[in-house]
Amino acid sequence: MRLSLAPAALLPLALAIACSDEPNVPEDERVRQIEGVAALASNAYSAAGPEGLYDYLAKDVAAECSKEDLSKALETEPVPDGFRRVSNVQLDGSKARATVTQLFVEEERQVEWSFVLEDETNWRLIDFPGREGCAD
Question: What is the dihedral sign for C-alpha 76, 79, 80, 86?
Fold first, then answer.
């Protein structure tokens, strides 16, 4: 017996796909680059704490903030358990802001991260919650 789906049977599936909360693939390559570095940095932060985040800092930030200083600055910030997504990427020349959704045991939290382009495709973190404690 051969099963075939009539077009009317496919309509609910098509609507479910069109209405899902999965983000569309952005057309701007810079947005994809920022999403990629945010995912890598978030996962490193989740796996190793503030020291994992350190490798994704902009050169200027790393020059004024050692790994130890970053750990101290972020000691009151909760370390996420994982990464969910990046949204609301706002580009301004060689700078960008984005909302990063992080996973915690019982919830998701959104934080604002800022990035700077250090060469043609290398986006690095310049601001994130707790970073101000490392500016001294």
Answer: positive
